[in-house]
Amino acid sequence: MSRQLIKIFVLFTIISCDKGKLFTPIKSPDLKFNNLLSYTSEFNPYTYRNFYNGGGVALGDINNDGLIDIYLTGNLVDNKMFLNKGNLQFIDITETSGLACSGVWSTGATFSDINGDGLLDLYVCKSGPIEGENRHNELFINNGNLTFVEKSKEYGLDILGLSVHSAFFDYDKDGDLDCYILNNSFRSVGGYDLIKDQRKVPDPDGQGNRLLENIGNKFIDVTEKSGIYSSNIGFGLGITLSDYNNDGWTDIFVSNDFFEKDYLYINNKNKTFTEKSNKYFKSLSLGSMGADSADLDNDLLTDLFVTEMLPKSHNRKKTKAVYDSWDKHSLAVSKGYFYQYPRNVLQRNFGSSGFFEIGRYSNLAASDWSWASMIFDLNNDGYRDIFIANGIYKDLLDRDYLAYMANQERISNIINSEKEPITKLIDIMPSSPIPNYVYKNNGEFNFDFINEKWGFETPSFSNGMSYADLDNDGDLDIVINNVNMEAFFYENNTDNNIDRSVSFELIGEEKNKNGIGAKIIIKYEDKVSMLEHYPSKGFQSSISNRLHFGVGNTQKIDSVIVLWDNNKVSYLTNLKTNNIYKVLKSSSVSNKYKYLHRKKSTFKIDTLNFFSHKHNENKFSDFNKQRLLTQMYSNEGPAIASTDLNNDGISDFFIGGAKNQISSIYLSNKDSYNQITSPFKLNIKSEDTDAVFFDSDGDGDQDLYVASGGNSFSIYDNMLNDRLYINKGDGNFEISSESFNFKKPFPTGAVSISDFNNDNLLDVFVGERFHPEIYGYPVSGHLFENLGNNVFKETNQNEFKNIGLIKSAKWSDINNDNYIDLIIAGEWMPIKIFINNNGKLEDKTKNYGLSNSSGMWNDINVLDIDNDGDNDIVAGNIGENTFFKPQMKIYINDFDKNGSPEQIICIKIDGKYFPILDKDELVDQIPSIKKKLFYYKDYSTLSIDKIFDKKILNQSISLDVDLLESSIFINNGENFSKKPFPAEINYSSVYDIEVIKNQKDILGLIIGGNQFKVKPQFGRYDASKGWYMEISREKDSLKFSKISSLNIEGEIRKFIPFKNFGQKYFVVGINDNNIKFLKINENK
To answer: Are 318 and 939 in contact (CB under 8 A)?
Structure first.
């Protein structure tokens, strides 16, 4: 699309679509800016990687007239300074102010009162070619008469490099403003290997990020001694300041592009920082760009949002997104580059539990090539929304371009035939504008994509952006810098009589006149809200020093608390809304404010150590066996069972091993435990996935059933066979090879014990987990009747054949007829109810209204939740913080007829099913479709019925998923009704749910899960550290409350309750980790 056509299209779109919108363009004759970029053979996206990163926006009141002014930076064009004259009218004072920065590539800009004279100064970062008299970063000191003088050298801020942005703040609380400069290396990105600890080596060219301490108005480099990395791999694009750990000191988040992980520098309160991103976060974005932090749920804790480049639409995902392989991802993790994924991340601050990444849950994970992310209240409803500035003028990552236009052969031809081959390569590079994205915050981290309704449907190439109340009418207006098109200036049309606001300007002292680093907490009605004052935000941009709170229709603010940077506090009360208030630091009092932390649960957890045992998962990769899988299924242990084997009043334990790890019994011996392994040596190559103690032979002691599973075995491997160990007394067990006759080896997903035929002998249900060679084929359940003397015979239960991928089974009398019924759940299957009709199990799933409950179920538990005398179901699902969406479908068939079946997961879009797989993955697995899927753009538009013949699809096994959330299913007698668990429980997959407290009106549950071994393009499920939750039984309703994190790291697989001398304990099984013992102390 030509530049002129883009301009006409944008103008037409704005004129025709702004009527009735929340935001409309500001009409001011002088308010015009176009960051025009044109490339040459010498200077272009190939010779300068940040060529199309664009410019920034800085907002501030430069003449203290109460009106916020606008500064925009250009790359090949001069910067512009617009003076606000009121009523949204602006005049261009660039030339007279001396702020043009002519002839040099400008990037980030920040207004800040550097010298403490009460006037805003301006710091402009520089990048691009190393040439020009003013190529260094420039500091413009405000003369007080709308002119500025450049004094960067005098202040020690004349940094020469590839600077992106700066942030001024008082990191050491000495009263003046220090400076962090985001500075990139000159070295090209392609010249790096994944080498451990590169970030600890300072850039040999003296580049890299810098922390400068202000000592008497001279900025001194303290980078290395303060603990800040200045290596040549930190390609930072954003600085986001906040008190992330809520201790009253400013911390620093740096979002790094390319392969280096993001940094979270925690302030040690002694002029040093420690990088602790690994401690506070579980997942990061891979190619991180802009970021912002704010309190999104009004719990007085700051959350963090970081943008990346994952497209939102299916079409663009298939043509633009590139993903690392599992092996490359694993290598990066092993070398210290952490768990990075190609998507936006939303880090919810959970206090002492750290941050939970919930971007997929909140529908914020994908927003295309996203630069600035800004969090602010666009509609004054009291919840901060998210604005994302989008677009790249030349799409360097278009996969058809890279594969067919910029491949080695084509490049050679262009070089041989063109006078300027590089410009020719750029000429043919795709260019597609896309709209900026706006997400309305509905509370509880639920967001709606609301572009068109609010007036942001215009496609663009946007970069830096900022917001402020430009017309002092009580709502926030928006300024956006674009590449090769006019900048956007939007007026906010909120009705301020209905949706009101309150704003504050902080009047500091000494060398921090604007109170940077302060927090403001407001309280009104039954609500609270908090803002931190850090102007540098988003991408290359900064906001004004006026802090804005939307408060809905509230007329009065009950109280305001200002927490200043020197730990003093100011208090205000009874403030009318729709006003701007000035708060003087000189009126503050010395009063230590108790920083709020998340409320503790009603119980206390003590970690004990009865004995030590580590589950060691084998290193098998499921992706080498079945390449189209989205996650692994060979990490579902450890199996744990508990009982009192020697009748001493102390619980004993069986802990199953992974493949090539021996299983163990821990037998109590007064104050210690003896480890017994001898009975299990023959089966060390098995993978134990479940275990149950029960009296199989009626002799009064507990025998042991051990289930084998995992995905690293062939269909012929007898190591998949389950085992029964007979208790011979004194901790001695002997394997019984004759008790069970399995017709074939299979991985076991579930074991459940009960007397289904009322003959006083305990029978065994065994559920197959999946087909050993092809995930997705529905597999069967097996019911073994106990004939006595440790002999079990499989009964003929046709209803159990090919029912799904079984993960959990529980016996319970659902219909109160004194016959025990069976409930089964698993992946790609509904929760199934089998009613026991005098020993015959009949599938009554449809009768009980559960036919449409197909999910990715990991666990079920059965108990009377609502105290009405019948049993309900609690069920653990994959959760809502994954790539899965309701109505997804999996097709299983040998699509290329080569004897090796494939499974293809599809997403439903407009009634059609599209494979979620990357084209290269699908073509590598099924080469016969390569001609049909030659171009990525072709693949992006083809549903599965256009890729494969209708006959093949009709012959395929297809399974659906309807539900993703972990839920309660209430037994209403004739049917079940669903009640989803609270949002926090659905932040990750749930693998186990156990009852910790069951009183008349309150039920307490502990819940655990996570799945880490997921392909990088989909990202692991890690937003849980175990949960405690209470369910209150109130008349005819259930209420969830007291949701608390257990702070248990890892992939929780089992909670096993036990008692020693009346005291409640739990043993926690964690995959590939040490088991934990928890003592539960309930507070009365």
So the answer is: yes
- At 377, list the tokens: 């209240």
Residues 872 and 976: their CA atoms lie apart, in Å, by: 8
- Lowest-confidence range among 32-46, 406-420, 458-472, 846-860? 406-420
pLDDT for 684 equals: 97
- For every residue of 565-579, DSSP letters joined together read TTSEEEEEEEEESSE
The 3 state secondary structure assigned to 515-555 is CCCCEEEEEECCEEEEEECCCEEECCEECCCEEEEEEECCC
DSSP per position, 128-180: SSS-STT-S-EEEEE-SSS-EEE-HHHHT----SEEEEEEEE-TT-SSB-EEE
Question: How far is the C-alpha of 77 from the C-alpha of 93, rounded, in Å?
Answer: 16
Percent of residues in the chain assigned helix, strand, coil, to nearest 5: 10, 40, 50
Phi, psi for 18 (deg, rounded to 5): -90, -10
> Over the stretch 718-762, which tens digit does the pLDDT of each residue have?
999 999 999 998 889 999 989 999 999 999 999 999 999 999 999
Say what the pLDDT of residue 998 is. 83
The answer, yes or no, to whether residue 293 has pLDDT greater than 50, is: yes
Give the side-chain half-sphere CA count within 13 A for 396.
13
Instruction: Decide: helix, strand or coil at residue 874.
Output: strand
668 near 651, Cβ under 8 Å? yes
Could you read off the pLDDT of 138-167 as tens digits, one per residue?
Answer: 999 999 999 999 999 999 999 999 999 999
Smallest CA-to-CA distance from 1007 within 996, 993, 995 is with 993
Residue carrying structure tokens 């590169």: 198
| Alpha-helix runs per DSSP H in 474-530 | none
3-state secondary structure of 54: coil
Half-sphere exposure (Cβ direction) of 404: Cα atoms closer than 13 Å: 9
Q: What is the rounded (10 degree) CA torsion for 1046, 1047, 1053, 1056?
A: -40
903 alpha-carbon distance from chain centroid: 26
Q: What are phi and psi of 649, to 5 degrees?
A: 80, 5
Query: Which pTM value belongs to this model?
Result: 0.96
Is 720 strand, coil or helix?
A: helix
Q: Is the distance from CB of 277 to CB of 261 less than 8 angstroms?
A: yes
Residue 422: φ, ψ to 5° = -65, -45
What does the chain come to in residues?
Answer: 1084
Q: Which of 645, 518, 653 is CA-nearest to residue 588?
A: 518
| 706 three-state secondary structure | strand
- Identify whether the C-beta of residue 778 lies closer than 8 Å to the C-beta of residue 957: yes
Residues 899 and 928 sit within 8 Å (Cβ to Cβ)? no
- Give the least confident one: 49-53, 96-100, 996-1000: 996-1000
Peptide bond into 638 cis (omega under 30): yes
Instruction: Answer whether 749's CB lies under 8 Å from 782's CB.
Output: no
Cα–Cα distance list, 698 to 703, 788, 792 (Å): 10, 8, 13
Q: Which of 322, 300, 932, 867 is nearest to 597 (CA)?
A: 300
DSSP state for residue 334 in the 8-state scheme: H
CA dihedral 396, 399, 401, 406 (to 10 degrees): 80
> Do 285 and 338 contact (CB within 8 A), yes or no?
no
- At 730 the three-state DSSP class reads coil
Per residue in 623-639, pLDDT (tens digit) is 999 999 999 999 999 99
Alpha-carbon dihedral sign for residues 96, 99, 100, 103: positive
pLDDT at 6 over 50: no
Match 């920083």 to its residue by tokens.
595
C-beta separation of 488 from 10 below 8 A: no
* Distance (Å, whole) CA 210 – CA 56: 20
Taking only Cα atoms into account, the Rg of the chain, rounded to an integer number of angstroms, comes to 32
Which of 408-412, 480-484, 674-678, 997-1001 has the least mean pLDDT? 408-412
